[in-house]
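Here is the promised in-class demo. Please do not try to memorize the tokens; focus on the logic of going from shape to residues.
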């Protein structure tokens, strides 16, 4: 109730509130019981995101939740029966969670797709070097980042190192308050005169995103690189050469935090798009007996173009659908039945997007701008990227029947493109619509979401899964 009172005071105080067609904040329609559900859902989300800061960790944490909810791993000889609760891991970096429906699989699936990679900094294959009395790491980047935002913040090192003997060493250091972190140092304003002509994203060059990882010399000659090598050997039993076959990421070490006096917002690294991934996961875990088979399709590498065999452009999902059909049909399976099922499949391609900004509202055309706290948003890109009108109407009905607030997100003409993983699925003749929720400070180390939007996105996905 305190949350509702706070918002009402703001509205009555004369603050300007822009909304689409007279819509109001979805906080105002919540009962006391629903407010409690919003907080419970947000707490679970923050707890999950505290650990799941890479796609590798997302999959590991998601499998724990799935197994606790009674799901089992799909195998080559798994029989398929209505009500079966299954998951399939694609190379540790992507995950599909399935609830088998009562209808024949040839009648199509209900798929919610989201990507679970986020913009970050990665290590180069031979990263360790020393300079001016410091040990540093050479880095690369994944996804669209504003480089200056990654300096002077605590970073954690997370990922895996794969050894020639076939074993894997998992590394996670910097998230625990008692662990050391890594920092990319910026240049002091006292001595940065030569850099002041740099503008915007060039303030820090990509090649300048090298974090400090050591400072105590091995001997009088320095030996800082050897110090790092000794630490890796003694702590993880790996050598510097083993980093050639590693996937290590530098991610913000800050934990999820509530924002504002009313605690209505959440600041969390990686909400693009593990927010949608978590919502899809929770929605499918809570789906019990759907008519259509429900699938949460959680993939890697969207931030770099859906590439590689764990990205949405891979044939993995279609292969998996064929595998499920074969398990149900046996020797009666034909390619025709798979193609029929794909045509009958409905997909939500979910991804977050920028919300209208209080300081720079003119970046949006206000009548079609999404606002935090106003519910999920349909992405109406235009130029061939928008779902067809009949499917949009069908999804609108699903949301309206479940009393889920929604809004529209359309960029200013020519300002931004459209699509996330949806295009890859539409290529296989599935019916696809893009929607998600708005964020502030998207693609930064610490973006902000509204708790009520995160809750309604979960509800929207669950309603989609159980819709007839």
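The designed amino acids, position by position:
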């Amino acid at each position: 109730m305190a949350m509702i009172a706070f918002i009402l005071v703001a509205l009555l105080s004369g603050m300007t509130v822009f909304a689409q067609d007279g819509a109001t904040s979805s906080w105002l329609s919540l009962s006391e019981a629903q407010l409690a559900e919003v907080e419970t859902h947000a707490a679970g989300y923050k707890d999950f995101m505290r650990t799941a800061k890479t796609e590798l960790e997302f999959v590991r944490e998601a499998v724990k939740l799935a197994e606790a909810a009674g799901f089992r791993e799909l195998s080559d000889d798994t029989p398929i029966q209505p009500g079966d609760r299954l998951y399939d891991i694609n190379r540790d970096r992507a995950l599909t969670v399935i609830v088998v429906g009562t209808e024949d699989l040839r009648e199509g699936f209900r798929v919610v797709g989201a990507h679970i990679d986020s913009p970050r900094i990665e290590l180069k294959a031979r990263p360790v070097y020393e300079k001016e009395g410091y040990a540093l790491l050479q880095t690369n980047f994944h996804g669209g980042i504003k480089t200056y935002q990654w300096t002077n913040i605590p970073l954690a090192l997370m990922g895996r190192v794969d050894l020639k003997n076939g074993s894997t060493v998992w590394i996670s250091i910097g998230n625990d308050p008692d662990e050391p972190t890594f920092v990319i140092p910026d240049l002091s304003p006292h001595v940065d005169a030569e850099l002041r002509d740099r503008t915007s994203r060039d303030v820090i060059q990509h090649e300048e995103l090298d974090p400090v990882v050591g400072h105590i010399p091995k001997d009088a000659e320095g030996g800082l690189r050897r110090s790092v090598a000794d630490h890796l050997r003694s702590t993880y039993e790996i050598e510097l050469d083993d980093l050639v076959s590693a996937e290590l990421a530098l991610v913000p070490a800050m934990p999820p935090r509530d924002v504002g006096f009313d605690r209505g917002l959440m600041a969390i690294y990686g909400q693009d798009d593990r927010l949608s991934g978590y919502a899809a996961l929770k929605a499918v875990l809570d789906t019990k007996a759907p008519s259509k088979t429900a699938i949460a399709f959680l993939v890697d590498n969207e931030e770099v173009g859906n590439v590689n065999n764990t990205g949405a452009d891979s044939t993995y999902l279609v292969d998996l659908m064929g595998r499920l059909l074969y398990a149900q049909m046996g020797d009666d399976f034909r390619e025709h039945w798979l193609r029929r099922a794909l045509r009958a499949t409905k997909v939500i391609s979910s991804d977050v997007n920028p919300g209208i900004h209080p300081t720079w509202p003119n970046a949006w055309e206000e009548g079609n701008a999404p606002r935090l706290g106003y519910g999920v948003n349909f992405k109406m890109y235009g130029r061939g990227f928008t779902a067809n009108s009949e499917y949009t109407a069908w999804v609108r009905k699903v949301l309206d029947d479940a009393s889920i607030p929604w809004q529209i997100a359309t960029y200013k003409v020519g300002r931004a493109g459209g699509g996330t993983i949806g295009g890859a699925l539409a290529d296989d003749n599935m019916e696809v619509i893009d929607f998600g929720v708005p964020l502030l400070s998207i693609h930064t180390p610490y973006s902000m979401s509204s708790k009520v939007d995160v809750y309604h996105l979960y509800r929207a996905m669950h309603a989609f899964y159980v819709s007839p």
